[in-house]
Specification:
Largest sheet: 5 strands, mixed
Order of helices and strands: HEHEEEHEHHHHEEEHEHEHEEEHEH
Number of helices: 12
Distance between the termini: 52 Å
Shape: globular
Strand order of the largest sheet: 1-9-2-3-4
Helix content: 25-40%
Strand content: 15-25%
Radius of gyration: 24 Å
Length: 358
């Protein structure tokens, strides 16, 4: 079965070594209107994926499966179970997901629709669960499912969230009007890979980018690839350090805002999200340290006048494991890493040592 290694796939894609997706060979979105509700794949680049909102027409960058799952859920529309049943379930044989009983329905899909993933025929009517779903019959009892093509049509391209259950997410395909279950990042990746529509750079550039931030969690590869597309992005990490008996542990974030002149030059900020300070330092040292960290929480540090090419190189080195924020020291005059970087015009606080005052 398919093993989901999004971090490895995306690292290779960033350096142009592989094409990220299995791209459609003949089907393309040629106009912004035709792209609404679709997942677009950049066939003239590395296969970067975008979701075009059917409501606003803006495009959201889908950095990888996990990021796509989180981002698409944030754009979801709540729906009752009764209304969800009006939309047929979509199946795609290309999806590479576990199917324990071999009935043609993945285990996760069966958990979502209430059939038994270990039993081929849940309702014991001599028809397998997969056959009944494909035929529009109820796999958990008798009769057909009460479908509504008009209702499905009104929700094409939308992400639906089950408000009466566990918030399960479904993507309604704009073409076939069927709902595809998006259980997690792996499922989101499958949907992106096999239901995506190829598009040219010209068409893609005619679709405005969304200002919605891509939250990459702790995935630095997601952050780098998102920054390269000029999309709002966030990555977080935990840092620890000690000084004179004090132990600092904090969660920090690096933010990118492409609206800052449309470049990397003033688009980065470092933010201290939260922290703990423990130990037996002097009262003055503790008070001064807490004051400093509280100030950093209230006032993010902007990275200004940083050369775009060098910063992207730095981020690539960081996400490739050849460098870390802990060894990057940028002074007022210049900063170099292994002697390969040009001068930086001003200080950008990316050192992981909160006690460093250089």
């Amino acid at each position: 079965m398919y093993s989901y290694h999004s971090r490895t796939v995306f690292l290779l894609a960033i350096f142009g070594m592989v094409s990220l997706w299995s791209l459609p060979a003949t089907v393309f979105a040629r106009t912004p209107e035709a792209a609404r509700g679709r997942i677009l794949l950049q066939v003239e680049s590395l296969g970067e994926a975008w979701y075009v909102s059917p409501l606003t027409g803006d495009r959201l960058y889908l950095a990888n499966g996990d990021a796509a799952y989180s981002l698409l859920r944030s754009a979801g529309l709540g729906i009752t179970n009764a209304n969800l049943q009006k939309i047929p379930i979509g199946l795609n044989e290309a999806f590479e997901e576990a199917d324990t009983d071999g009935d043609g329905l993945s285990d996760k899909l069966e958990a979502a629709i209430g059939t038994n993933p270990s039993v081929v025929d849940t309702d014991e009517d001599s028809y397998s669960d997969g056959v009944e779903v494909r035929g529009g019959f109820n796999p958990r009892g008798s009769g057909v499912v009460n479908l509504s093509s008009a209702f499905a049509q009104s929700l094409r391209g939308r992400i639906l969230l089950q408000v009466e259950s566990r918030g399960e997410a479904w993507y309604v395909h704009p073409i076939d009007g069927k709902r595809y279950y998006m259980a997690d990042g792996n499922a989101a990746y499958q949907i992106m890979r096999f239901l995506g529509l190829g598009t040219s750079d010209e068409t893609l550039n005619s679709i405005p980018k969304s200002s919605v931030q891509v939250d990459c969690g702790a995935d630095e590869r997601c952050f780098v690839s998102t920054v390269q597309t000029g999309t709002h992005a966030k990555v977080v990490w935990t840092q620890t350090s000690t000084l004179d008996g004090l132990q600092f542990q904090g969660e920090k974030a690096f933010l990118y805002d492409p609206s800052a002149n449309g470049t990397l030059r003033t688009g980065f900020q470092e933010v201290l999200l939260n922290y703990t300070l423990e130990g037996e330092g002097s009262e003055d040292t503790i008070a001064i340290s807490r004051g400093l960290f509280n100030q950093l929480q209230d006032a993010p540090v902007a990275c200004t006048n940083v050369d775009q090419g060098n910063l992207i190189t730095l981020l690539k080195r960081w996400q490739a494991g050849n460098a870390s924020f802990g060894v990057v020291q940028m002074t007022e005059n210049q900063a170099r890493l292994d002697g390969e970087y040009e001068e930086f015009a001003s200080r950008c606080l990316v050192s992981l040592n909160p006690f460093d005052s250089n």
